[in-house]
Predict the structure.
Amino acid sequence: MRTQNIAIFASGEGSNALNLYHYFKNHHKIAVKKLICNKPEAAVINKFKNTEIETILLKKEEFLNAECLLGKLSDIDFIVLAGFLWLIPPFLTTSFKDRIINLHPSLLPKFGGKGMYGLNVHKAVIEAKERESGITIHLVNEEYDKGKIIKQYKCFIEANDSPEILAVKIHKLEQKYLPSTIEEYILSVL
């Protein structure tokens, strides 16, 4: 079986993207091949500077152009969204059916959708007086955060937790579970 190549789409800090890179660096069946970013100022670009990973900076019109984007992904088998905020266009969800995976910082279906990222999610969770939160790793379809759930991991919310404290708890779950869940999913569908 040939190696399954991953493209990571990221827009921000890049800690989850870098975690995936390190996890799969010497993997015998899965490899991170490309980093796709939509923000020239994103910290993730600097984090990948000293790696062998090809970094592609995309403008919105390139991202929405099927021929352009699919051409850049011609050697890619799976896409992982790690803090990527643009809605994935239908031509991409069709071309990569059940092969685009997203990480969301809440327990979907609650607290998903447009604008539900970063501290926005954690503020909403705390304001709703939820007792737990967590991460959802799910497949991507044409709607924000509506794809089939692969796995969820939970943490408890203490009465005095702020959105910032909850963000730290969520980040620990992301770092611990995202790589192994992606590995398990990719190997299960081959």
Summary: Strands lie at 4-10, 30-37, 54-57, 78-81, 100-104, 132-139, 149-156.
